[in-house]
Amino acid sequence: MRAFAAALLVMGTVGFVGCNDQPSGPQPIGMPDTAGDAGANTDGAVVNSCADTAPDLYNCACSATTMRACYPASASAATRGIGACKDGMQTCTLAGEFGSYGECTGATTPVTENCHDGIDNNCDGRTDCMDPACSTDPSCSCQNGQTRTCYDGPAATRSVGTCRDGTQTCTNSQWQTTCSGEVLPSTENCSDALDHDCNHLPGCLDLFSCIFSSACQSHCDQTKLDPGCACPQGEGDTALCPAGTVGVTKGGSLTSPGNDECCACKASDCANNTNCCSDPVCAGNSACNQVTCKPLPASCNGMTNFDCDDFPEDCDEPCCHCSSCP
To answer: Residue 22: its pLDDT value, please?
Structure first.
């Protein structure tokens, strides 16, 4: 009887742990990850998260023979896919019903920057003498007062959207470490048509940032129109405005939605709304130098697309009087 009671106590304890706690420390090879992504395994001094989206699942439990792209936990995840850094592969090997992922092999991780090979070896988005790591390299010395372009943001955002290079100046025969005047990615502004976070998706087209923004909900309230403005025909990206006007989205708030309007071009629109380049207000404006204007097709019935400023997304819209499209 006493042994039976002891057995019940052990069973109750095991059941309690199984329902409420996860095993601490590494999970042994072959042990199923009953927590889904809650576990973690140790690879030397590096602790690997066992979340499904973790770059490296070395020693994490798995239940089917498969291969996956991986990036070693010993390297910073921020360097993945930057410069020379590339993914490797790791395989789930079964031992009975359960198994575990092997090491991540074939990956290229950061190494010391080589200042002469044209490759971003340390995977920080900067190459050779543009990398501060090369500031003391004799071949990267310069003449005092000399300048060069620079950019400290992620390489994929350079010259995208509002992101722009800055300038470094040579001082004491070495390039400065600061990059003056550069424009780095910032929070997306859902009330304009600019790509502030530099991901190729301007304003409301950036669903990652603006899908719930009231400024991006197709809406036009006649009672809220600015003087001289009109509501567009249709809604969303294919809405139309009368020729001679340009689509404008007035930002709103959670309690007061924004308003889509067709308004006359202003000088401040020349750089952001290419359709205004045919308007006298933009005559001689340098922002229109790379813009091509042509007569509207007869099928447009004197109407232009609401937004002819979202290169290259709008290049397939036929009713853009002026555009930056090839």
So the answer is: 37
Structure tokens at 11: 């069973």
pLDDT digits (tens, 9 = 90+) for 258-270: 678 899 988 888 8
Confidence (pTM): 0.39
The answer to whether 32 touches 63, Cβ cutoff 8 Å, is: yes
Among 222, 224, 279, smallest CA distance to 246 is for 279
Residue 143 to residues 76, 118, 135, 147, 174, Cα–Cα distance (Å): 35, 22, 13, 9, 8
Q: Name the residue with higher pLDDT: 6 or 75.
A: 75
Tell me which residue range forms the domain holding 295. 219-323
Nearest by Cα to 56 from 23, 87, 10: 87
- Higher pLDDT: 250 or 35? It is 250
Q: What is the DSSP string of 259-292?
A: EEEEEE--GGGTTT-GGGGGSGGGTT-GGGTT-E
Rounded mean pLDDT of 195-206? 88
Rg (CA), the chain: 29
DSSP class per residue in 144-167: TT-EEEE--S-GGGTTSTT-B-EE
CA dist 231 and 241 (Å) reads: 8
Give yes or no: residues 225 and 301 share one domain.
yes
> According to DSSP H, which parts of 179-258 are helical?
207-210
Asked if residue 135 and residue 92 are part of one domain, the reply reads no
Q: Which residues of 281-317 are buried (b: 16+ CB within 10 A; e: fewer)?
A: ebeebebbeebebeebeeebeebbbbbbbbeeebeeb
Q: Is residue 107 part of a domain?
A: no
196 contacts 161 by C-beta, under 8 angstroms: yes
Q: What angle do CA 256, 262, 267 make, to 5 degrees?
A: 105
Main-chain dihedrals φ then ψ at residue 174, nearest 5 degrees: -135, 145
